[in-house]
């Protein structure tokens, strides 16, 4: 082995492959997630499918309800059948569901398509996060996750341009047909995406893990202790979930969940209604979609900045500060300002909002055991999906009542609540010892 590449080079080769393919999958996830908000002003103006503002809010909630189901089930399923199989299934599901939306002849069928798409979208993100966490360089876990999540916002930017270039000449259905194209990416994932080495080792599939390790010339991760394996076998399929409440983990888990609720209420409320609310303020469709682009550009910048800062100062601490800044930015959007200043506030709000929520996931992922990581991230994301369901519905109800400005205040309060919960988690986490058996290789600088 003396002639083989250095450990850093070996890890880098496999990491680039895994993270790169996951990045593309999450790009398509972001496209499918944001496309509804991007085409919604056009659908409401044209009264597509007889759509009304309150129905539009309900449809946004259908998708996020599907994401709730997907997130709650996908983590446990991924820890049982593998990250790769589940990622392939999720991409196929939300791509096919977009085809159902494109052919829908009624609000009910369209809602079914968005719900099914949501299941795939909700299952993909926690699975991809747990996958890249396995291959992240030590001490760079939050940054790697932040880099992955830039794809989600790149997909949001793409959705705005799809709406600009496709919807006006071809209609809203063409935008959803465009979202079927990621189905072509499924064979690429099947062929090239490596399975998680830590998953294979944890499941006792040592021969398969060894073959993958030899192919990419990487070292196998340490196998779980025999006692831990015995406990998992005895506990059955709910053991991964029960592990989130063992020992002192229960208090952290119960802080992460409401923090995620407020964060996703804010993220999906703003993602669904930002173009419509801004158009209601007098901006044309092109200007309203510019806010989507700026919001997601801010998200990309924020992921990289927050990831680096979190690796240095701790993800929960950065998340709390970011939520405070997000609340201030969202509240400012309710104040009439010059257009250039409004553009700047939208960009900065995107910087802080999107990465604040992601750093909750980073905290959970980095502090979780490899064999339990997808379940921990999935349930944190899943419990937050209740907020994601509530956010679009709330925006629709406020719009119907002609109280759109109140939506910004409500979203700002959600950001403040998340700041409180993740802030308490940061304070409690600082009191925990970092030398326990479960954390040295995962926590890094945290």
Report on the structure:
The protein is an all-alpha fold and 446 residues long. 81% of the residues lie in helices and 0% in strands. It is built from 18 helices and no strands. It has helices spanning 7-46, 53-81, 83-103, 107-135, 141-170, 172-178, 186-192, 197-202, 206-216, 226-235, 239-242, 249-280, 285-313, 315-332, 339-367, 373-400, 404-431, 440-443. α2 (53-81) packs antiparallel against α16 (373-400), α13 packs parallel to α15 and α16 (373-400) runs antiparallel to α17 (404-431).
Instruction: Provide the residue-averaged pLDDT.
Output: 77
Terminal Cα separation, in Å? 34 Å
In helices, the fraction of residues equals over 70%
Query: What is the β-strand count?
Result: 0
Q: Major sheet: size, sense and barrel closure?
A: none
DSSP helix count?
18
Coarse morphology: globular
Helix-strand makeup class: mainly alpha
Order of helices and strands: HHHHHHHHHHHHHHHHHH
Uncertain stretches: 1-11, 226-237, 433-446
What is the percentage of strand-forming residues?
under 5%
Give a quick rundown of the structure:
The chain has 446 residues and is mainly α.
Write the layout of secondary structure elements.
Elements: H1 7-46, H2 53-81, H3 83-103, H4 107-135, H5 141-170, H6 172-178, H7 186-192, H8 197-202, H9 206-216, H10 226-235, H11 239-242, H12 249-280, H13 285-313, H14 315-332, H15 339-367, H16 373-400, H17 404-431, H18 440-443
Give keywords.
446 residues; mainly alpha; disordered C terminus
């Amino acid at each position: 082995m003396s002639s083989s590449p250095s450990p850093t080079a070996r890890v880098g080769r496999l990491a680039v492959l895994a993270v790169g393919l996951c990045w593309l999958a999450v790009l398509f996830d972001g496209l499918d997630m944001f496309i509804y908000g991007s085409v919604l002003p056009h659908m409401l103006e044209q009264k597509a499918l007889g759509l009304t503002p309150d129905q539009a809010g309900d449809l946004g909630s259908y998708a996020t309800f599907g994401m709730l189901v997907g997130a709650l089930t996908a983590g446990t399923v991924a820890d049982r059948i593998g990250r790769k199989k589940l990622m392939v299934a999720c991409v196929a599901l939300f791509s096919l569901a977009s085809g159902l939306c494109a052919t829908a002849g009624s609000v009910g069928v369209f809602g079914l398509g968005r719900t099914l798409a949501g299941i795939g979208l909700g299952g993909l993100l926690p699975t991809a996060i747990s996958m890249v966490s396995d291959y992240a360089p030590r001490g760079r876990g939050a940054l790697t996750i932040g880099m992955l999540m830039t794809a989600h916002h790149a997909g949001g930017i793409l959705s705005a341009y799809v709406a600009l270039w496709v919807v006006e000449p071809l209609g809203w259905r063409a935008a959803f047909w465009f979202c079927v194209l990621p189905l072509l990416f499924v064979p690429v994932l099947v062929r090239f995406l490596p399975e998680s080495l830590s998953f294979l080792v944890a499941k006792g599939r040592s021969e398969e893990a060894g073959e993958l390790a030899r192919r990419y010339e990487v070292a196998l991760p340490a196998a779980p202790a025999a006692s831990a394996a015995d406990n998992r076998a005895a506990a059955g399929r709910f053991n991964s979930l029960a592990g989130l409440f063992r020992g002192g983990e229960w208090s952290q888990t119960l802080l992460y969940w409401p923090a995620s609720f407020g964060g996703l209420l804010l993220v999906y409320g703003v993602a669904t209604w930002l173009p419509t609310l801004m158009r209601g303020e007098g901006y044309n469709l092109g200007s309203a979609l510019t806010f989507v682009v700026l919001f997601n550009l801010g998200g990309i910048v924020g992921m990289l900045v927050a990831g680096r800062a979190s690796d240095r100062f701790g993800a929960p601490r950065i998340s709390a500060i970011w939520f405070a800044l997000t609340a201030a930015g969202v509240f400012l959007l309710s104040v009439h300002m010059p257009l250039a200043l409004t553009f700047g506030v939208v960009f900065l709000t995107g910087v802080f909002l999107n990465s604040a929520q992601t750093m909750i996931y980073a905290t959970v992922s980095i502090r979780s055991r490899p064999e339990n990581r997808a379940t921990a991230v999935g349930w944190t994301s899943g419990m937050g999906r209740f907020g994601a369901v509530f956010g679009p519905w709330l925006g629709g109800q406020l719009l119907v009542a002609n109280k759109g400005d109140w939506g910004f205040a409500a979203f700002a309060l959600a950001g403040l609540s998340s700041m409180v919960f993740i802030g308490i988690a940061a304070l409690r986490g600082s009191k925990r010892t970092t030398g326990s058996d479960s954390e040295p290789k995962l926590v890094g600088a945290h």
